[in-house]
Amino acid sequence: xxxxxxxxxxxxxxxxxxxxxxxxxxxxxxxxxxxxxxxxxxxxxxxxxxxxxxxxxxxxxxxxxxxxxxxxxxxxxxxxxxxxxxxxxxxxxxxxxxxxxxxxxxxxxxxxxxxxxxxxxxxxxxxxxxxxxxxxxxxxxxxxxxxxxxxxxxxxxxxxxxxxxxxxxxxxxxxxxxxxxxxxxxxxxxxxxxxxxxxxxxxxxxxxxxxxxxxxxxxxxxxxxxxxxxxxxxxxxxxxxxxxxxxxxxxxxxxxxxxxxxxxxxxxxxxxxxxxxxxxxxxxxxxxxxx
Length: 291
Description:
Strand order of the largest sheet: 1-2-4-3
Distance between the termini: 11 Å
Low-confidence stretches: none
CATH topology of the largest domain: Butyryl-CoA Dehydrogenase, subunit A, domain 3
Order of helices and strands: EEEHEEHHEHHHHH
Structural class: alpha+beta
CATH architecture of the largest domain: Up-down Bundle
Shape: elongated
Strand content: 5-15%
Number of domains: 3
Helix content: 55-70%
């Protein structure tokens, strides 16, 4: 079954120390283009996110936002930058020596100095990673479900359109022998008129007619077009990411259809070719959203 590249998912996991929330959305893209947004303090989790997403998705522009909330802030150690403090004190003493009436440096003055540096608490990365994986799994499941639902709708629509193409190819195949025969007859008449009175032999004449008539035959193109249609249908049922393969097959189908239109000197076939190209263009638009 086909999968769309458009989807949205949200997940959440709560532990004793943290709450982790994940939101992710995906849209069309030729390859897997992953953008991860995580707070700087928890950047270590990005590799976990990338690994899980790459394991689950094959194509699409995927944006993942991961939020970590500390439920019970732990007591943090504050370190005094002694070297910086001594530098500030020396500078203050120099300033005081220049002022009349020397004043002592007070604790309040020291507390205003930027010499206190809080140390980040130790993070239990194993527990936090487990919560991130749980939240991301929920978000991925929702995203995949949405992509599958839209993929099912795309599948039905593409199957209907391929059936239209197949019927049009049947019509072309029925008209093709008549086109070749009519072309052969017209060519024979024109050549007989042009070559009347010349020394061209009957064998050479018939060989030239056969050569020109063969140039308007479209049997091979029809066979290849039907083959592409069959491969397209099998690929859709494979259950694998096939968006790029379907896009390639559409290019090949368009190439065969264009050749048929150029070779077949028939209004009926030309009209069928236009209809096929219109339907294939609609299929191409749908395929752009298939993983």
